[in-house]
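Q: Could you fold this chain for me?
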Amino acid sequence: MDTGMDTGMDNSTHVEQVIWHGDLSGDPDGQLTVGVARRDGDVVTIRLRDGDRLVADVRLRNGPTRRPAPHDLLRTDLGPGADCTRTFVVTADATTDHVPGAVPVLSTPSLIAYLEDTAADVLRPHFGPATASLGTWIGVRHTGPARAGDQVLVTAVLAEVRGRRYLFDVEATVAGRPVGDGQVAQTLVRLG
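A: Sure. Below is the predicted structure, expressed as C-alpha cells.
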C-alpha cells in the first residue's frame, strides 16, 4: 500500500489488524484521506477517513508475521463464522436517566455487556476444563436507543482467531432498527 507517506516500514511489513469503523459516505465527490494515526516501535496505525467520518484503522507491523502459540483451552477448534444470537430484554437497571426530561434508554455500558456476553456465548460451549474468557477489547458504536421493555437482538460472529484471542463482529437491533455495532475481543484464560 503506497500512501505517499514515510511510515518507517520496510518491505517485510504486513497488515496485522484492520478495524472497520463504518461505511463510506457514498458521496462520489467525497474526499478519502489516509494518515498515520500512531507509531509505536515496529507498529504503525494508518487511519482512513471519508471527509470527517472515520472509516478504518489499519495496523501494520514491521517484521515477520507473528504466529500465535497453540492452546488447549477449547475442546473443539472454532474458526471464523462461528456465531451466536441472543435476545435481551432491557430492564430499568440497564437504562440511564442522566438526561433530565428524557425517557431512560439503554446505557452504553449495558449495550457493551450484551455484546460481550453474546460473543462469550460463542466460546462457552467449547471450553475445556478450567477455562473462561474475558472481554479484552471493544470498538463499539452505540447508534440508537432502546427503552425499558424493548427486546434487543444481539448477534456475534467470530471474525478472527489469533492464539487465545477471538475477535467478533457484533451487532444489536430492536425490531430491525440498529442500536449498536462494532467489534469485541474475548481472550481465553486458564482458571486456577
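A (continued): Residues 158 and 168 are 4 Å apart (CA to CA).
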